[in-house]
Design brief:
The chain is mostly beta strands. The chain is built from no helices and 13 strands.
């Protein structure tokens, strides 16, 4: 059985005439959390980098997601990535890769720490500011 009017659903599982309807927008879905860093001091000052969901590796090596042109920064220096916390929100973590000059967060050498909006990250002579939007 087929409906006679155009653009109507047919029991055969297809649309008659026109294109298929677009997906329905879902309401009450939590928006994604975004993180990024801004180069405050050093080469590429003012450059903004978005943090990938699976994480972004920072360093001098061209294979890094965020390349830091600073001779005091290791080839693969640190990583920032997101994890879900107990409340279901995304927290971003910063981890140093046991580098020669280390990674500073708000002036303190760290191995691994949770980032907060506005945190100051120092890699070599380069200063990055972490930004987060929930």
């Amino acid at each position: 059985m087929t409906y006679q009017q155009t653009n109507q659903w047919q029991p055969s599982g297809s649309w008659s005439g026109g294109s298929a309807p677009q997906k329905t927008e879902l309401l009450n879905v939590a928006p994604p959390t975004f993180g990024w860093v801004v180069v405050r001091e050093g080469p590429r000052q003012g450059k903004v980098y978005q943090i990938n969901a699976e994480g972004s590796v920072l360093g001098r090596d061209v294979s890094c997601d965020i390349i830091i042109d600073d001779q005091a920064v290791s080839g693969r220096h640190a990583k920032i990535w997101g994890v879900k916390n107990q409340q279901g929100q995304t927290d971003f973590l910063l981890q140093d890769f046991a580098t020669a000059n280390g990674t500073k967060l708000n002036g303190n050498l760290i191995i691994r720490e949770t980032l907060k909006d506005g945190d100051r990250i120092e890699l070599g002579r380069t200063v990055l500011i972490f930004k987060k939007v929930d």
